[in-house]
Specification:
Layout: E1 5-11, E2 24-31, E3 41-48, E4 53-60, E5 68-75, E6 82-90, E7 93-102, E8 110-113, H1 121-128
Antiparallel strand pairs: 1-2, 1-8, 2-5, 3-4, 3-6, 6-7
Length: 138
């Protein structure tokens, strides 16, 4: 993967249309130096370090080749400082993943490189298969 970068910050967005339970937002931007070619949509799924789904968002690109795409992840839970697993999908297929550490302050961007799955096949398996299995509640 050619230097696909991801940055995220915890934020309060006043003008974002959000449900009343969503007190905190996670703004995530993904950038590619050559633009996202052959992509009709990009999406991300954010998990805790223990693989618990915390939120997701999708953006339709409609034939554009943007270099940067922004996502707004809404959650009823507060985005705390710590490690988060973020999986990036292009046209519904896993493109890469990253382990991002959010720090304690709001409106402060944390940045990391999106990795491909060559060195971590277990992450690819999770992104392709396991995260889409239905949850059984007993």
């Amino acid at each position: 993967m050619k230097n696909v970068m991801l940055r995220a910050t915890r934020t309060f967005i006043e003008d974002l249309c959000a449900p009343e339970y969503a007190h905190n937002h996670l703004a995530v931007e993904i950038s590619h130096p050559d633009g996202f070619t052959d992509a009709q949509e990009l999406s991300i799924r954010v998990y805790s370090s223990e693989y618990r789904l915390l939120g997701c968002d999708t953006r339709s690109l409609k034939g554009k080749r943007p270099r940067k795409v922004r996502f707004d992840i809404l959650s009823e839970e507060e985005w705390e400082a710590g490690l988060y697993r973020i999986y990036v999908y292009r046209n519904g297929r896993p493109m890469g993943w990253t382990l991002l550490e959010l720090y304690s302050s709001y409106e402060c961007w944390d940045r990391t490189e999106v990795e491909d799955f060559q060195t971590r096949p277990e992450e690819k398996y999770f992104a392709e298969t396991f995260c889409f299995l239905p949850l059984e509640v007993y």
